[in-house]
Amino acid sequence: MLLQNPTKQTVVTTADKVFEQMQQAIVEGDIASGSKISEPELAKRYQVSRSTLREALNRLEKCHLVERKANVGSRVVDCTIEGLLELYITREALEGMACRQAAMNMSDDEIKHMQNMLSEHANKEQLKAGVAYYQEEGDLDFHYKVILGSHNQQLINLICGQLYHLVRMYRCQFGMHSPRASKAFSEHAHIIQAISDRDGELAELLMRRHIAASRKNIENKIAQQQLEAASN
């Protein structure tokens, strides 16, 4: 069965291009979390009509990157501890199951590709220094590849279609530059080993522990940021 990947949509229209550009800008923090959406400013910035911009905003809302409130307007979703807890508890369950399925369903070639990918990650200077573990979107993202490796279309739709970019927003802005970088990489290596051994139970357990540890790391960073903001 040919699986569909919600994060790999063909860019055809101007609205598609604006959607992708804004999506990346929000995820990486170039458009600040919690900031109010100004349609005139964004239409000017991306040199598009208001109707084209609204089409892109509608899609960003479906990705949970933009939220609309009556009589308030649109805002970029805020990175809060409450939002983090809800997202990561959901992610822990879904990605844990995806990992179990990957141990059953990934081909030997897919596993080899992931092992090679981790070898490439290991050569990154920031990871060697133990200060950051930055993974680019898509095929260079360990979690993304595990999800696709589940070969379960429902899980792919839920995680890649609805949650992926919101997860990346938290990871990019709080999780990738961290003293936990080396530990996170080691956890990835153990997960792929469990998948390679076709041990679905262990693979799920390791993924759930890995995501829980990542959540705690990001939670601490957000709390520290809030504390610093309150003291200024």
Annotate the secondary structure layout.
Elements: H1 14-27, H2 39-46, H3 50-62, E1 66-69, E2 73-76, H4 81-105, H5 108-122, H6 125-128, H7 142-149, H8 153-175, H9 181-196, H10 200-231
Antiparallel strand pairs: 1-2
Helix pairs in contact: 1-3, 2-3, 4-7, 4-8, 4-9, 4-10, 5-9, 8-10, 9-10
What does this structure look like?
This protein is mainly alpha-helical and 232 residues long. 68% of the residues lie in helices and 3% in strands. The protein is built from ten helices and two strands. It has a two-stranded antiparallel sheet. β1 and β2 form a beta hairpin. The protein is globular. The N and C termini lie far apart (56 Å). The mean pLDDT is 88.
Give the tags.
232 residues, mainly alpha, two-stranded antiparallel sheet, 10 helices, globular
* Gap between N and C termini: 56 Å
Mean pLDDT: 88
Major β-sheet, in short?
2 strands, antiparallel
- Please state the CA-atom Rg, rounded to the nearest Å: 18 Å
Number of helices: 10
Strand order, main sheet: write it out. 1-2
Quick take:
The chain is mainly α.
